[in-house]
Design a protein that fits this description.
Layout: E1 3-7, E2 10-13, E3 18-25, E4 32-39, E5 46-51, E6 58-60, E7 68-73, E8 78-83, E9 92-100, E10 115-116, E11 120-125
Parallel strand pairs: 2-11
Antiparallel strand pairs: 1-3, 3-8, 4-5, 4-9, 5-6, 7-8, 9-10, 9-11
Length: 126
């Protein structure tokens, strides 16, 4: 049974930082591309960032580019999302997602990801 468990969300002030992690089990983690999406009330699920199975390729949404950094440790079955220079508009539930051989052009498409975590809340106060 595949399971993704996120942690690290919480409350931060604008300009502050948080570190999210997502640990996978039940599959060969290093075979899969991963991504983070987020959703805030009244808004659609939004792509944040994706990373290839090797960690060699990543893609960021314009909303977070230069502020967020994704990395992965295949030995620990974990992907990390470092959130810096947080803004109130970053407030959302953040979900990690796992997909097999996600084409670069489709990395932001949620339907490419078969497995999802339960989400972790990030709240940024102004």
């Amino acid at each position: 049974q595949v399971q993704l468990v996120e942690s690290g969300g919480g409350l931060a002030q604008a300009g502050g930082s948080l570190r999210l992690s997502c640990t996978a089990s039940g599959l060969t983690f290093s075979n899969y591309d991963m991504a983070w999406f987020r959703q805030s009330p009244g808004k659609e699920n939004e792509f944040v960032v994706g990373i290839s199975w090797s960690g060699g390729t990543n893609a960021y949404s314009n909303a977070v580019k230069g502020r967020f950094t994704i990395s992965r440790d295949n030995a620990k079955n974990t992907v990390i999302l470092q959130l810096n220079s947080l803004k109130p508009e970053d407030t959302a539930v953040y979900y990690c997602a796992l997909g097999y051989k996600v084409s670069g052009s489709l990395i932001s498409q949620r339907l490419q990801y078969a497995y999802w975590g339960q989400g972790t809340q990030v709240t940024v106060s102004s």
